[in-house]
Specification:
heterodimer, A: about 70 residues, mainly alpha, Helix Hairpins, about 60% helix, elongated, B: about 400 residues, alpha/beta, OB fold (Dihydrolipoamide Acetyltransferase, E2P), Rossmann fold, 3 domains, 5-stranded parallel β-sheet, 13 helices
Chain lengths: ~70, ~400
Amino acid sequence: MSDISALSFEAAYDELEGIIARLESGDLSLDESVTLFERGRQLSSHCQALLDQAELRVSQLSGDARADE
Amino acid sequence: MSFTYTISELSLYIRTLFEGDDRLADVWVQGEVSNMKRAASGHWYFTLKDSSAQIKCVMWRSSAERQSFIPQDGAAIEARGYISIYEAQGAYQLYASEVRQVGAGDLYQQFERLKLQLQAEGLFDPGRKRPIPAFPRQIGIVTSPEAAAYQDVQNVLRRRFPLTEVILSPTLVQGADAPAQIVRALRRINDRTQVDVILLIRGGGSIEDLWCFNDEQVARAVAESRIPVITGVGHETDFTIVDFVSDLRAPTPSAAAELATPDRDELRRNLRDLDDTLHTLIDDKRFDLQTRLAAAQRTLGHVSPRSRIDSQRQRLDDWNARLSSAQLSQLTLWRERLTSRAAALASADPRAILKRGYAIVSRSDDGTRLDQAAGTSPGTGLTIQFFDGELKARVEDKDSHERYKRTLF
């Protein structure tokens, strides 16, 4: 499984929802369930961290000379 | 001879003439407003005039309420309606249903024409509209950097989804140079970036201010954009051509930013819910497995080798016990038989017979036992065994033996 800290918000969120779906299906051994659960918790923490630490980055393409309203 | 009409009859005739004329049934008239009066009833009464003529106008309240502006004395306007006569005053009037500013008429026609044309080309088809990505990593904005709308959009994005990155492709957003710049700005952001969505935005303004977003080249550039476009131009009620062509129309620039992004607070709530679900699922799993384990253990208890060994052991003890008691009784039986046999044997023992007073007679020469008298001739040596010893004797015939008996005494 991929390194969580490198995942984008969308990738981590999607994987988390996927894990929950698998756990809900109920066909897993306890070992598999615990492994998935731990991964799920880590994904959730990662998503929370991304949300909490994010700062909007703004940049501009060079193009037409100064536009004015 | 001519027929003499009453005024009423004449007026009715004139009215019929007016109302029978197609052109006068729906006409746009241009003129300058004077004597504008808004009655308490809500109806409008005004006069439209040009340099040499004038016409009285009335607009009933139901139409007046829907107009986007109120004509002022001295304003040049265009009014639409039908011509008829107001018999009571002997005057013809324009019964107006609509008014608009001068010049707006041309623009409006252009707008309608282009709209129909692009619609016929299929540029408005719902099937062409692409979905907007749920979690955009980069958002492109096409607008003027000085515009308040640009600041508004940044604020919305900062609040809702600061994970994203904004790239501005600057352009004029009004005036004659705007359409060409907007087209270039859209192409630039498509060619040079990998943004997930483009916001084409401009704050509120008059029809003339927003006119560049009705430009045909701008509309085509939006249709050609590789990247999905959300338009947010003017206010809620402003519809421009680009709004029909774009992948999604927003009522305002800020709304465009909202439609492009998920809300951070909502995402936080969702993550908490997902956490709760995770915990519930793992608890359920553990409980489920514990239950199954307990059931398995019970079943196992019945079929395990240990229990088999134990039960075999018990059977063994059982057998042993039964065997023991069986043996015991058998033993007793044997013992009793043995005893009786021994007794029988003992009684059959020859020595026991001697004890009873019998003697065993045997020939002295060869030791053979004599068990009968016949066949033994006189003179044979005999050994007679008594319980306490032997006697040696000789067989005699009966006659000679009798002499012994008499002479000894």
